[in-house]
Amino acid sequence: MADQRPTRHASRVLPARKRIALVAHDAKKDELIGWAGKWRETLSRHSLLGTGTTAKRLADALGLEVEGVMSGPLGGDQQIGARISEQRLDVLVFFWDPFSPQPHDPDVKALLRLAALWNVPVATNVATADFMFEAPSMSKDYPIAIPDAAEWVASRI
Ligand SMILES: O=C(CO)COP(=O)(O)O
C-alpha cells in the first residue's frame, strides 16, 4: 500500500489561554504534582483538565479547578485523545512511566500518537515541561500547522 499520509496544509491557533491536559501514571504522580506546584501561577492562567485520579490529586494539591475526565485505565487517555482530534486541546503534559507496563498501554500509545499527528506540544518529563512553560508561546496565540482533514477525505474517495 502506498505511504499515504495527510498534508499539513491546514492550521489552527493555540490560544493564549490554553487548554492543558495533565496526566501522570501512578509512580509519576508525585513528580507531576511537584512540578505543577512550581508552575501553579502560570497554570492558573490556563484551562486545566486531567485523567480522573491525576486531576483530583492536582486540584487538591494546587487549589485550582482541574476538569477530570475518566481515569486512564478506564478510558481517560482516549477521551483526551478525542479532544486532540477535535482540536479542543492545546498542550499535553503526560508523565508516563517508562518502568511499569500499564494495562491500558494501547490507550497510552494512541494518545501519544494523536498528539504527534495533530502537532500538539507534549512534555513527557520535568525538563521538557519546564522548557515548554518557560517559552513565550505559552502565554500568546501560537499558530500551528495541522493535517488537512478535508483534503485527506477528498483524496480517499
Ligand atoms: O493512567 C493514566 C494515564 O495513562 C492516568 O490515569 P489516572 O490519572 O486516573 O491515574
Topology overview:
Blueprint: E1 10-14, E2 19-24, H1 29-38, H2 40-43, E3 47-50, H3 52-62, E4 66-68, H4 76-85, E5 91-95, H5 105-117, E6 122-123, H6 126-134, E7 142-146, H7 149-156
Parallel strand pairs: 2-3, 2-5, 3-4, 5-6
Antiparallel strand pairs: 1-7
1,3-dihydroxyacetonephosphate (13P) binds at residues 23, 25, 51-54, 71-73, 76-77, 108.
Describe this structure in words.
- The protein is α/β, with parallel strands linked by helices.
- The protein has one domain: Methylglyoxal synthase-like domain (Rossmann fold, 3-Layer(aba) Sandwich), CATH 3.40.50.
- It has seven helices and seven strands; from the N terminus they run ββααβαβαβαβαβα.
- It has a five-stranded parallel beta sheet. Strands 1-7 form a two-stranded antiparallel sheet.
- α5 links the parallel β5 (91-95) and β6.
- It is globular, with a radius of gyration of 16 Å.
- It starts with 9 loop residues before the first strand and ends with a helix.
- The model has no long low-confidence stretch (mean pLDDT 96).
- 1,3-dihydroxyacetonephosphate binds at residues 23, 25, 51-54, 71-73, 76-77, 108.
